[in-house]
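Appendix B: complex inputs.
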Amino acid sequence: MNWQGIVGHEGQKRGMERILKKGRLGQAYLFTGPSGVGKKRFAKTLCASLLCLKQGRTPELGPCGDCESCALCERDSHPDLLTVSKPEEKSEFPVKLMNEFRLLFYLKPMVSSRKVALLDDADFLNQESANSFLKTLEEPPPGMVLFLIGERTEKQLQTVLSRCQQIPFSPLSPTEMDRVIDDEVLKKPEWKWAKWASVGSIGSAKAMANSPFWAIMERVLRLLGRQSKIDATLADDLVKLAESAGDTGAFQRPLILDFLRALSRIVSHLMVPNHSGDPGEYSHQPFVNDLKHSFSRNKILRLLETLGNSGEQVERFIPLALGMAWLAEEIHQIAEA
Ligand SMILES: [Zn+2]
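Resulting structure:
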């Protein structure tokens, strides 16, 4: 775990470095920005720096990498690094979980000179679960620092926002994304498309480049352009696509959301050729070109609405198999309309 492994976010690194140098470390920070750009990795490296046993009174940006604390951080098992995230099966943080989490803050550090806490999925704190630790957020035990990680600023509670210093993170540039990907993937045409469709999220781009993502995208686009016959396996294939991301919904849902977003961007581009977010080389695929001629404005609008609704279902934790069956049926109907 070190800063060399973190690509991009130079401004945030320099900002944190200045804060540490001046000994002005706050007690609570909220990192916001698109998922998959490296916020959590950034926060974890920062936590490792603060916990490192080789650090003096004013810690520097960068863990030593070989003390006991650094080894524990590397293995994700540091007893003074408290982490919590929303349980996969819940749509919000349960207040009981937050109460339990808060109690841990008051135990003495076991390895390092302080405790640090990392709360992921801050977008899913509700008023009740947030209230249970607002006081701690305001006045944590001495030396303790809390890092909250969320995606959208507008999803954060005012009570949380007002108690944290917010640090926004931006999407990665295409060049930065190229720097973190294996040479083998870098050469694939799928990587170029994934890079475009992921809008600067390296997490999304990796998932899109390493799955049947584009084969299914082609299938849906051909279906919509009526270049292929309707068959009953589309829903199953969408579920298989989700499963290619991992065993649990925590991995599967983001990939389906990425798929819906990428399809929306391609389709929006058909309606407004100069639509910002040019699908680049992907629009030169013959089946995309054909769609340009055969797809009416009404169909495009209907499809965009369907994709938006499908995304909402996925975000509301409707079982994926049901959601994908609904989406496949809608796509068939739009294709036939
Ligand atoms: Zn260390």
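Residues 52-54, 63-64, 67, 69-70 surround zinc ion (CB under 6 Å).
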